């Protein structure tokens, strides 16, 4: 009886390992197919060597537009978990403009005024608000419910309207989505090592994003 139980456990373990290997092979094959389909018009995506996550910039838009682009690519606007990730984002994307990040206190995303959350659902483990922020200052019907990272890398809250059009930073925690993860359309992707060797750069066909 004990031997039979051990045999079943060992068989279940082997099946799990085989399934993990199959999924890994499918992901590698997907990237290879996407590399072959690379087009000249693309978006640069960078892999953070500290966590293996992929990041890229959306086209300019409101916060909700940027988040929609992130979801279409299989991710969310960036969740910044610590000062090291904050510094990496600054060095990767530059400090001469503001970017949308994944913070919101909008009821649309299941929270309440003043209770900011990451749209990814991850817990808040680090903050870098500009002094006096968030302040919900602007006189708009919905208030300032959406987070941005300023050129100083400090955070600020802004409303979701056409006065504030900027790029957002998208974070994807795993490999880029397959066809059934992106509303039936595949992203055209190619990967290559950067000259520094620190980041992997991937190009996504911009036509696959809204």
Question: How would you briefly describe this protein structure?
Answer:
This protein is an alpha+beta fold. 27% of the residues lie in helices and 20% in strands.
Notes on the structure:
The protein has helices spanning 2-36, 63-72, 83-93, and strands spanning 42-47, 54-57, 76-77, 99-104, 117-118, 146-149, 155-158, 169-172, 189-193, 200-205. The protein is elongated and about 70 Å long. Strand 1 (42-47) and strand 2 (54-57) form a beta hairpin. The chain has a single domain, classed as Mannose-Binding Protein A, Chain A (Roll), CATH 3.10.100.10. The protein is α+β, with helices and mostly antiparallel strands. The protein contains three helices and ten strands; from the N terminus they run H-E-E-H-E-H-E-E-E-E-E-E-E.
């Amino acid at each position: 009886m004990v031997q039979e139980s051990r045999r079943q456990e060992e068989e279940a373990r082997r099946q799990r390992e085989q399934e993990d290997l199959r999924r890994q092979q499918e992901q590698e094959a997907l990237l290879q197919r996407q590399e072959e389909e690379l087009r000249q018009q693309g978006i640069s995506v960078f892999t953070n060597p500290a966590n293996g996550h992929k990041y890229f910039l959306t086209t300019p838009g409101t916060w909700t537009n940027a988040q929609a682009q992130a979801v279409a690519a299989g991710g969310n606007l960036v969740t910044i978990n610590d000062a090291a990730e904050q510094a990496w984002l600054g060095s990767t994307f530059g400090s001469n403009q503001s970017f949308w990040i994944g913070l919101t206190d909008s009821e649309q995303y299941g929270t309440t005024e003043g209770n900011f959350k990451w749209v990814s659902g991850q817990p808040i483990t680090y903050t870098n608000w500009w002094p006096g922020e968030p302040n919900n200052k602007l006189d708009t019907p919905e208030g300032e419910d959406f987070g941005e990272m300023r050129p100083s890398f400090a955070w600020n809250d802004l409303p979701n309207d056409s006065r504030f059009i900027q790029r957002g930073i998208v974070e994807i925690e795993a490999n880029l989505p397959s066809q059934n993860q992106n509303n039936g359309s595949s992203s055209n992707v190619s990967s290559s090592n950067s000259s520094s060797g620190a980041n992997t750069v991937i190009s996504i066909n911009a036509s696959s994003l809204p």
